[in-house]
Write a structure and sequence with these properties.
The protein is mainly α and about 90 residues long. The protein has one domain. It is about 85% helix and about 0% strand. The protein contains two helices and no strands. α1 runs antiparallel to α2. The mean pLDDT is about 85.
């Protein structure tokens, strides 16, 4: 009974915040695109594109980590929305 109530609460929360989540996902996706451009620019500036190269730019490496974290966040938000649609 408690689990059913929790699912209903989760579904209601997701339904009411779905437009906000969609806006957040769009914003985060734009951030990923911008980070990709910044990484490409930094790699071109340094002339190094191989991550295993010891001279690979530190800025590009940190931007890659940030981009990966944002992608994980986007995937989590998508999974949340899909889970609440299915529930």
């Amino acid at each position: 009974m408690a689990i059913s109530h929790q699912l209903q609460t989760l579904r209601g929360t997701a339904t009411s915040s779905r437009p906000q989540i969609a806006t957040l996902i769009e914003s985060l996706s734009r951030s990923v695109e911008l980070l990709t451009l910044e990484i490409d620019h930094e790699e071109a500036r340094a002339g190094v594109r191989d991550l295993s190269d010891p001279t690979y730019p530190l800025l590009a490496r940190s931007l890659r980590v940030r981009k990966d974290n944002i992608r994980i966040t986007i995937a989590s938000l998508d999974a949340f929305v899909h889970a609440t649609e299915a529930a």
